[in-house]
Each structure stands twice: as C-alpha cells, then as structure tokens.
Amino acid sequence: GNSVTQMEGPVTLSEEAFLTINCTYTATGYPSLFWYVQYPGEGLQLLLKATKADDKGSNKGFEATYRKETTSFHLEKGSVQVSDSAVYFCALSDATGGYNKLIFGAGTRLAVHP
Amino acid sequence: DTEVTQTPKHLVMGMTNKKSLKCEQHMGHRAMYWYKQKAKKPPELMFVYSYEKLSINESVPSRFSPECPNSSLLNLHLHALQPEDSALYLCASSQEGRQKNEKLFFGSGTQLSVL
Q1: Which of A114, A66, A111, A63 is nearest to A87 (CA)?
Q2: Which one of A102, A105, A107 has the shortest CB-CB distance to B104?
Q3: A67 FRET partner, CA 20 to 30 A, in A38, A92, B69, B115?
C-alpha cells in the first residue's frame, strides 16, 4: 500500500539556519504530494503541494520538488525563523477507488531558537 | 470564510456515556473527513464523506458512528468508548473528495479524554 517516511525529529536550529526535512514515499500510482504544518494546539494547514513529477511547490520561503526517480519530496527553507517552530507532515494523496485519501508521514518537529 | 469549525474543543467522557462531536464548514465543499490523532503521531483517516455519502470507512469500530446531515455539517457520534480512544479528533473538508490534488482544510480539533 501507499506510505510516507519522514526523517525523525526533533530538528533544532538557530534562527536563519538552513532547513531540510527529508520525505520519501511509496505509491503504486502517481500521487499528489503535500507538506502540511501543525502549530501547537491547532489543526493542520497546507504549506505547499506538487501534483506531478518535477513540479516544485513553494510557499512562505519553503520549497519542495516532486522527484519521481528518487520517490522524494524533501522540504527546504533557506533561513528559518522562530515562528517556523511547528510539526511538519509530509503526505501523499491518491484517488484510487474514486475517492481522495490523504496519508501522512510520522511528522517532524522543528524547534527554532533565537 | 475558509474556516472549519469544530465543537467542543475539549470533551471528557466516561466509558458508558454517549456524546457527539460536531464540525461545520461554509466553503461550499462537498467532501468532509474525520481524522484521529494520538499524541506525537500523525493523523489517521477514519471516514470520508463525498456528496453526503459515506465513501471511505477505514475499518473504524462501530462505537464511532459518523453522520453527514448536509454538505456543511459532519457529526461523529461516540458510544461506549475505551480509554485508548482518547485522542485529538480532526475534521477536514475539501472540494469534492474525488481528486488527488485537493487541498484539505482542517479544523482545530476536539481533544477527547475517555475515563
């Protein structure tokens, strides 16, 4: 079945450091890929998405490229801020069977210190 | 309005109680979802409704009973729960529930404790 694997956290960085969170997936078809973010005490918010191979999703300085050859969708940001501290979930979605099914990775907690 | 509203925010119930979680959206979405999230774990899909019909049930125990009275409302009826059912229950909505590129909008969740 479909699955998503993320790097273990927590990731602790100083402000303005470079961020990479690794994500790889296993899927039988051609899924769409997403990064969602969850701030403390809140639900999840879509950060960015990519729907086909070589697509790059970007938002708020975060980027991720859909790499079919390596089945990866790594999240990057050039300069993190304290306000980026949250849990980041990589996810995939397919519509096999006719209905959208979003599957999440385990999540990576990011803590950014001043 | 791009909000999904969930009530209550917190709920404590005994194993013999019956309670309901409620979810509402006014974005014109025709798909609504229930996810369960245990502490420090990812959300796990429970149910999907598309056009008010139950489309996906991820083998959820019958003590959880979903209901979609109309396209704006989604309920989750709880009965005879176990302590291990304690978790954050998240509601989400999306355009139709039939396309793999659909963005899900999540509510803030109901934190449920079963004593």
Answers
A1: A111
A2: A102
A3: A38
